Amino acid sequence: MLIDPEGYYLQFNALRVEASATRERERLAPNFDANTLRLESNSGVVFVVVAGPYRTLFDAIEAKEAANNVDVIVVRGAQLQRRQVLEAEVNFD
Fold this sequence. Notes:
The chain has one domain: Alpha-Beta Plaits (2-Layer Sandwich). About 30% of the residues lie in helices and about 40% in strands. It is built from three helices and five strands; from the N terminus they run βαββαβαβ. It has a five-stranded antiparallel sheet with strand order 4-1-3-2-5. Strand 2 and strand 3 form a beta hairpin.
């Protein structure tokens, strides 16, 4: 998955265990084209479940409301890139 720096993404979870992130992505699959990113954080590697990109902030907000999950946040692709994406899930071992 290539991150579009101009796009908007829904961030569902940041999890420490890859298997948990995979389960979350699969749970979201019926409603979202979700992916998992491996990111570097201050406390180590985390697996972030995201959906997108959405072309506009309005589109992302509508998708967030449809998710009906208060923990979902909207992030810009450039923000994800600054968080030191190590790799997308297609490259996980």
